[in-house]
Amino acid sequence: LSDMEAFINLLKCAIGTGCLAMPRAYYNAGWLLGLISTLLLGLFVVYAIHVLLNDINTLCRRHKLSELNYRETMELAILNGPHWLHPLSKFLAYQVDAFLCAYHFGVDCVYVVFIAKSVKELGDLYFTPMDIRLYMALLTLPLLLTFLISDLKYLVPFAILANILLLASFAIICSYLFSNLPSLGERRAVQAWTHYPLFFGTILFAIESVGMAMNMQNPEHYLGPFGILNRAMFVVIAFYAAFGFFGYWQYGDDTATSILINLPLDEMLVATPLNLTLIDPQLLNRLAQCVTAMLALGIFFSYALQGYVAIDIIWHNYMLPRLVDNAARSLHYLVRMAMVIASVLCGIAFPEFGLLLALVGSFCLAQVGLIYPGIINLCVCYSRGYGRFQLLLWRSLAFIVVGLGGGIAGTVVSVMVMRDHLSTYDN
């Protein structure tokens, strides 16, 4: 990729379900604490990505390798660390793959819930209201048809269409968020700390998705103070902060787990800061419904791309080497079908969009984005020392402690709140 293509690719990762949950995340933190935390946690996560990528480059140079994936990096780093850790190299390497698969599978579960919730919002307006779980079950066949496409290049048209729909939808949503804002004094600056772990999981889910390495024409341009990663992340963090802040400012305590639920689906757009006076008023009718439909379609077309990563890891690393050629193709499609069905069943079991998103962020991304980079850095720096005052050691420990603390708290709170919601939902 050229520098511009890599920059755009990173920005595209910021537009998705994580962004839709940011206003609710600010409700869980308060607008002031949310702004401060988005900035600090965003910078902390970006710094962890920098450290991880630098450690990968260090290991490649040290062992004269052209490239390393995340699992291989963990295994090799452990073997460069203290001798008592060496027996754990394979175990921790497998853990990396497990959490990467769990994350991408969890994203697909979030997508199932989001699509079903969006379709239900529209369906209840025009048809007989149905349980959201029935909508999830009806999604199984359409999702299967897209997920059976096993060649990545054939998914590119779906990705392009999804990006167009998502960008257009967010532009329209912003027009709702900025119109007729109430007094900011009516909103909490700092929320009760018991809600904060849900904010942590949501912000990790949203921000960590852009921490992806790129195959670039000029890879040296990716890192550095003014590299592609930092420039893209500056835009991403600013966008998330603004979207979450204005979303909570607009809707306050009524802010839903997905901002789409707050849009007036049965009303016309009343007022926006945009100049819409030259447009036929009929075109503005049911605008929020169009946004909901476009976002549902955009996420639907993104489903296969998210699941592709998990299938690629499971299939090529663990299943294909153990199969005979005759059985491989049939079993490959069976694995894909099983993943779709499993994601739908998980969505049916846990139909609360925001809580599921926070759970995935806390449980998986605290490991992949903070804890594992800290462990890798500890081991990579072991042979050359940790510098003056052991600063590199304290840095690595900070990654691990924040990841463990936030991940455990976010996971426990998400599960507890989810359990309460499920008992209420069933009753």
From TrEMBL:
| Regions that span the bilayer | 31-53, 91-114, 134-152, 159-178, 198-216, 228-249, 291-311, 331-350, 356-380, 392-417
Is the Membrane keyword given for this protein? yes
Q: Name one GO molecular function term.
A: L-amino acid transmembrane transporter activity
Entries under Pfam families matching the protein: Aa_trans
User: Which keywords are on file for this protein?
Assistant: Membrane, Transmembrane, Transmembrane helix
Q: What is this protein called?
A: Amino acid transporter transmembrane domain-containing protein
GO-annotated cellular components = vacuolar membrane
Q: Kindly report the protein's main subcellular placement as a broad class.
A: membrane
Q: Which residues form the Amino acid transporter transmembrane domain?
A: 4-415
Note the InterPro entries from the entry: AA_transpt_TM (IPR013057)
This chain's source organism reads Drosophila rubida
Membrane topology designation: Multi-pass membrane protein
Annotated compartments: Membrane
Q: Which PANTHER family match?
A: AMINO ACID TRANSPORTER (PTHR22950), AMINO ACID TRANSPORTER TRANSMEMBRANE DOMAIN-CONTAINING PROTEIN-RELATED (PTHR22950:SF340)
